[in-house]
Amino acid sequence: MAPSPGSILLSVTGFDPAVWRDEIERAAPGRTVVTEPDGPVDASIHYAVVWKQRPGILNRLPNLKAIFSIGAGVDHIFADPDVPDVPIVRVVADDLTERMSEYVVWQVLDHHRKGPRYRRQQAEKIWHEDRMQPAARDVTVGILGLGVLGLDAARKLAALGFEVAGWSRTAKKIEGVATFAGDDGLDGFLAISDIVVCLLPLTPKTKGILSKPLFAKMKRRGPLGPAVLINAGRGDLQNEADILAALENGWLGAASLDVFQAEPLPETSPLWTHPRVTITPHAAATSVPAALIPPMIAQIESHERGEPLTNLVDRDAGY
């Protein structure tokens, strides 16, 4: 008689656990799904599916084989100082990638085609066509972060006719994309980018990167005026006081922000009412259980057949 498969711990904050539990049970009908370990030590749990898990909960699982994040980032996992030394798997799913690319393309096109200006004109009943409309080929969109999400967005923007540049920690070669890497490449990347899209992971090295020193190096004069910032990565990548200052002193022309240092964004934040800021409520790429759970279960099943896990997090790099 074959041994029963190990249990799966579901530990999520900010999501309805019942929806995720139902999807796991649907995709893996032979497994037990629990939301709490059984006692101070639970040897029956072999896998964990998490988002901002309760600190210390994973350290109670001596037979844990892998941790799966239900979001694109994994910084929430490392916020727990007691994360055990087992493989951590980043979620990579077409649905999540496509949703992020939709958001990036939407925001790029909105700024490119002067959406914020025309919305202000509509509110004031002003009929005025801005005839200084550059073509996509005259605008360079720079993407900070060339992982799965950044690469897909780059390809879709290039297909629309934009010039596309990308910056990453290590050198990459991508057809049709001007690539820059490392500290030495950042200045050159910023110098040519009319719109800067941030899709970086949050690590100790990237925390606060969207701040005064970076804004000071961004393009001042281009087809859209001062460069535009779009951040759909993590809130702690940005310094919001510096963003407001850069908008006021002309270092930034506009900003679209989907993530914030404190969420929900406090009602007192001046970002809400700034005329050149577009705010979305961390909605760029929603994690949908039906799209994300089946690839996780497939990985678990292949791992138990002796195959290696994929999309593993580099603990030293933090993503």
TrEMBL record:
The keyword Membrane does not apply. Keywords: NAD, Oxidoreductase, Pyruvate. The keyword Amino-acid biosynthesis does not apply. GO terms for molecular function: NAD binding; oxidoreductase activity. Gene3D superfamilies: NAD(P)-binding Rossmann-like Domain (3.40.50.720). Signal peptide: none annotated. This is Glyoxylate/hydroxypyruvate reductase A. The lineage of its organism: Bacteria, Pseudomonadati, Pseudomonadota, Alphaproteobacteria, Hyphomicrobiales.
